[in-house]
What does this fold into?
Amino acid sequence: MSLFDSEKGRLGAGTAPYPLHRIRDDPDHATQSHADHMEALIGATRRALEKSGVDGQQVAAMAIDTTGSSVVPVGEGLRPLDDYYLWCDHRAWEEAAQITDAARQTGLAAIEWCGGTYSSEWGFAKLLHWLRHNPAKRERMVTALEHCDMAAAVLCGVTDPAKVSRSVCAMGHKWMWNRSLGGFPPDEFLAGVDPLLAGMGAKLSGC
It folds into this structure.
């Protein structure tokens, strides 16, 4: 966290660590906790304010930078149902291959915006992997969020998942959203990949 003045430049900075969760027997597994992220953000912000000698009430705006291609399923109240699937979490490689095959077979135009191949780092693949491996939590899932959108929503006090604003960059090739193509891929395509994805486009509101 760095604190800047428009005329004086950087006034102070602070950092705070947070853990990465790996599994020795599964090299594709890489997650982080939302609670750990928020605790680190608070700690880093506090240190930056202390070093700069600035009252927090004087801060006029915040800019954030987060890890891309990191997805978290959330329930009511924007409560995370699990850890973030980080960009380097590649457990969803089979799901990504299924999406790619289905897109090519059906001629889905959105796949061309992804370079012709859907990645295991991207939203629908990670979400489908989570849905398949967490049947007890499925009914509680309201939507899934990219790290950038989750962080911005928390800082802005947004608790209604339907009112979260989505990053165009994150939702573009990573979730195959394209305004000129009607938004997300059609529900019949998503349900054709796996019935667990049926209706998911509607749940990803905010674009």
